[in-house]
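Minutes, project check-in
Item: structure for the 179-residue chain
Input as provided by the requester:
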Amino acid sequence: LISAEGVQLYAPPENVCAALCSGCFRYCNNVERVFLSGSYFSNDCLARIGSHCNNVKVLQCLNSHIVSDDGVTHIIKSFPQLYYLDLANTPCLTNNALTQLGSWAAEGGPLRYLFLPMCPNLRGNPSAILNKCTKLKVLDLGRCTNLSSIDLNLPQLEKLSLWGCGGLERLQLDCISLK
């Protein structure tokens, strides 16, 4: 579905995805919102979309069981105006993806909304990385069950979800805007 609001694609069979992404997005250089859902959207698909749609500000890529840290690399390189990123239920993401996002944010990336629920390979204490994302207003790490500690110092953070983070042993928040 392509509209003035943006582009929405639901996963076709794997062998069709790459062709659809490159063909569909070839004429969408002014698209600002992209919604992808399904397990067949891959790192390559994100790269193809990024090569044609560098004005994307909102990206939702949900339920992809094959998008990995390399996909985050494509996102950062392709979408310099991205302020809203939702990678819910993307189990191949690791702390390396967070490191990339933190470095990008520290270099001026406009990221303000970050949704990473149900990403079980985010582990340990990613606080030092997340604290580089100083513009974050919303952070969702719900059901990231392998997080052990969170120490956040994000003055602009208004909403935080850690629902279902059963492995969390320590939580320290210095977020003056948190509601």
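Outcome recorded: The chain has a mean pLDDT of 88.
No further action items on this chain.
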